Every structure is written in C-alpha cells, then in structure tokens.
Amino acid sequence: MKTRFAMLALSLALPLSAGATQLDPLYGYKGSAVYGFDQVLNGYDAVGGAAIDATGRMWVAGRVQIASSGPQRYRWATLWLTPRGNPDFNLAQEGAFIYTVPQPFEQNNAAVKAVTFDAQGRFLAAFSSQPDTTMAANAHVHVCRMTAVGSYDTSFGINGCTKVVFDAAATFEIPYAVTVQADGHILVAGSSDSGGSHRAAVARLDDHGSYDGSFGPLAPNGGSRILNFPGTDGSGLAWDVLSTADGGCLIVSTVHRNAAPSVGIGLAKLNTNGSPDLGFSQDGFALPLFANAQGVDLPSAATRLLQLPGGDFLVGGYSPYFVTYSPAGLLRITPQGNLNPSFGNNGSLVFAYGDVFTHDSVSAMALDPAGRIVAVGEAQRDLGNNQDETEIGVARLSTLGVFDTSFGVDGLYNFEAEPYAVDPQASDFPTDVIIRGDAIYIAGGTFPKGTGISDSNYFVAKIDDGLIFDDGFDN
Asked: pLDDT tens digits, residue range 194-235?
C-alpha cells in the first residue's frame, strides 16, 4: 500500500480555538489522510463508502487496481483507520485487506459502491463485478458481509457473499446504496439495464443473504422490484434507500420526466411486501423538483436521502440547469409525499459552497447531535486555461433550511484533501459523511491535477467544530 501520510507533532504552546470551523490538525496530516493501494504505476483506487464501527475505527472500502491489465485487474479492498487517522496495523498488514471475490461469483473488476454496518456490527459492502474482463457490457450486483476482523462471514450467502439480481433479463446491474432494516432485512438499490435503458431497482435480502420472496415479483423467486415512475419514460437510477418506521422503505432516483424539465427526482415509498404505499402521494410515487428563490422549477438530479426528526425526509442532489453553473440542491418531503413549505423556499433550496464555484452538488448528508443538517459534496471552480478543480464543500443548516452562520462562512465551508502535500490542486470527490460528537468525518476520492483517473487515492478528513488546536495555517 502506498501511503501519503504524516502525523503532525504540535507543541502544547499552540493556541486553542473554540468553535472554529477548520480541519482538525491532529487528524492525519493537518486534518486529512490520503491513502492509495497502488501496486501498479498510476494505479486507480476509488473509494466506494466509509462507516465507523462501535470501537470508533473507520472502515473505508473501495476499488483497487492491482495490475495494469488482465483478469482481476481490479479487486475490492478495505482500509481500517484508528480515531486519529492512522492505519490500524493490529488487524492487517498496512491496515488493509485486498479481497478476491469468492467462488462461485464473478471475480473481475469489482467496484464497491456502498457500505454499512448492521445491528450486530457486521460490515456489509455492495459492489458490482464482471464475469469476464472483456465483457464491459456485463456487470452484476453482489453483497458481502464481513466479520469484525475483516474476513468473509461464511454464515452469509455462499462463502460470505450473495449475488443480487434485480431482473434476470438484465445484463448490466449496479448497486448504489445498501441499508439494513430494524428486523435485519437488507435493502439494496441501484440500476438495472435491459435493452439499453437504465431502470431504478431495489431488492431485499434476509439476514442470511437469501432473497425475501415476499418482496416484489422479480429476482429468481421474488425479492426485487423495478420501479416504474408515473409521468416518466421508465428510465432511472436509484441512488439511495432508507428503511421507514413502518417496515417499508423509501427510494430516491433520478428519472427522465415526460414534461419539462426533463431531468427530475423520483421518490418511491414501498410497503413491507414491496407494493407501492398508497398513502404516499396517493400512488406511492412522487416527482418533486428543486426550485430557485423565485419559485421556478429546475432540472433536478437526486443523490441521497436523510430521515429527519418528526418523519420528514430530506433529498440531496444538484440542479444541472446551466452550462457554466450548477448549484447543489436540497428539498424536504413529508411522509405523505408533499414538499414541506416550511423548508427553504417553499420546500427546497439551491446553493453553492463558495462564491467562485461553478458546479456544486450534495453527495452525502447526516444529522449532528444538535439536530442540524450537515451536507457535503463537490465544489468545483474554474482555474482558467480550460482547467478546473473540485474541492470538498460542507454546509450546515437547520431542518428548516436556514444556514448556520456559526459554521464556516455563513454556514458554508470548503477545503482540499491535500492542501499542503504533493498536489495542492488535486480534485476531490466526497462520498460519505459521518458525525461523531463534534467531529465531522468526510471520505472520498482524490485525483491529481490534470491527470484524469491516473494514480487516484482515497482521502479521509476530519473537521472538529468543538475545542481544537489551531495549527496557524489557513485551510
């Protein structure tokens, strides 16, 4: 494993700063740690998700390039970090495992897309892999469960994994979200391509990795559903899924509408048996849109869901409605499937993380201990000369959509994963946000400036909004 990492030794004479918004200089290298699993020159390592276990150890999972070509060019891996941002050498050499997908499953080009822990503290990873490295049009969904020491849990599925089929007629399926319900059932959401059209899909497994046959009509013997949103052309991508208090689930998708704007958000509320919940927007489906301050509906793309206190839901994403500028977006939906007009501008708001940014998004959300929304995403800006870079944007706001002026600048903060290291103008793409006490942990991928996907790495950064050391640098 290649590691660009150093611990910062600080003198006790350094001043303290209470309530400041900045990277915690005691975590990683001045607030962030950048890692790569490269075993080949210019290896491609992409983070798929991160989660913290009961001991405070962070599990970061992603796609790892282990060879320049050939079978199993990409595998999947997990890196363990201590609460201080160090690799946990007690678990594995260099703190990480690189996995081969077990037989009898497809083993080529594994790409982790989502992770979570269940109530027993077992780690689940959802990924796609291919039966053959030459068959780029074929991909299948797998879910694996790991023990606390990072080995496959053989009590789950076959050899620790399950192949998830949304639709047996499809040849290209990708997972984008995985979550565990209170009763132990596992929900997987993603896309299913049959005949060249991506469709939003969801499947449910039991605690042992078998299909829940009572959920939906598809899969080999039930257990999955293709979501057909009324008012759309049927195509879509399911980006996130939440378990609801009634045992059902809510799925958010980006869909193609039959009316302008053509790109929109699709929400589907399903009962425990996978049928549409008719108490949600009358038919189980809703097509809300982001709107600007003037109330004009905007093209809307969804990425994430968050359950709010009281039962409402928050949808995060972005609005790709300008060539030169696309803002991040949030909207609040009631349990009945309606926009909550008390949030933002009559139910939604769009914003940028900074004045100079040109393309912004929300890619992860969480609630802090005070009940405030923390949203993170890409904050891209133009550097001139046909170059740009993407920083990490963070917003903190109330559940009514009012930005918290005590956080950053008017509730907004942005930073680079490697501000003082090898490539200070690398582009950063946040994937997950996790909050523990005053600390905000953000994980994602970082790409060297101007090199596309070459030699990409993971990053994990920590913002501490409580009492922290002041390292004397601007972030």
From this structure: 777 899 999 999 999 999 999 988 888 889 999 999 999 999
> Rounded to the nearest 5 degrees, what angle is found at the Cα of 431, between the Cα atoms of 203 and 125?
40
User: Which of 302, 325, 324, 323 is closest to 313 using CA atoms?
Assistant: 302
Tokens 């076959």 belong to residue: 158
Q: Which of 280, 226, 220 is nearest to 248 (CA)?
A: 280
d(CA 455, CA 383): 21
Give the angle subtended at the CA of 187 by the CAs of 148 and 106, to the nearest 5°. Answer: 70
Which distant-in-sequence residues (6+ apart) come within 8 Å of 466 by Cβ?
18, 19, 437, 438, 439
Indicate if the pLDDT at residue 351 is higher than 80: yes
Taking CA atoms, 165 is separated from 139, 168, 307, in Å, by: 11, 6, 27
Tokens of 297: 């509906």
Tokens at residue 467, please? 């009492």
Whether residue 472 has pLDDT greater than 50: no
**Verdict on whether the full-model pTM lies above 0.85:** yes
Closest by CA position to 48, among listed 417, 434, 429, 469: 429
Best CA proximity match to 360, nearest among 343, 370, 375, 347: 375
CB 265 within 8 A of CB 207: no
